[in-house]
Amino acid sequence: MLSHRWGRGEPLLREVEGKKIYDLGGTDGLAKLQYFCALALEHNFKWAWSDTCCIDKDSSAELQEAVGSMFSWYRRSSLTIVYLSDVSDAGSLARCEWFTRGWTLQELLASPAVLFYKHDWSLYRESATANHKTDATVLEDLQKATGVAKQHLTDFYPGMDDARSKLHWASRRNTTRPEDIAYSLFGLFKVHLPVLYGE
Known about the structure:
Blueprint: E1 2-4, H1 13-16, H2 28-42, H3 51-54, H4 60-75, E2 80-83, H5 102-110, E3 114-117, H6 136-146, H7 150-154, H8 163-171, H9 180-183, H10 186-189
Helix pairs in contact: 4-5
């Protein structure tokens, strides 16, 4: 699965449906999708998932299911590839925009295996590990950037316990739509509520 900060020209479902993405061109978002798919293939995966084009946002039922299921989807992911579009060198996570976004908190905490990639699609802090959550140096960087303790980064359990800490982690993040401030927390607290954008 891809975890990323949305940028310009993100391809939507209708734009890629039934097409070979490597035959398409023209936007930064499409190039990001192509790099992500190539990386997934390098890691021996035949299927890759990105929220920009794998959810039919024109369907309110599908959007409702996606918002309510996002945490569990990332939890079941074999690998989450995190693209840090504004990181060019190791140790600069604290200034990275990915760590300021509401939805990426649950993607980070839910995913059992994560690899971080810098803006040029090179691996963040080259190491032999297949999971940055098992790399002590990367975990130290993550703790500094998020304020989340290492034990939660590596072994997070959703639910209502320790609500104060979870809300504190989320308080440092923003969302584009005001409703998403709450919706992005559903998975962390293990709650299911109706999604009603604009209500």
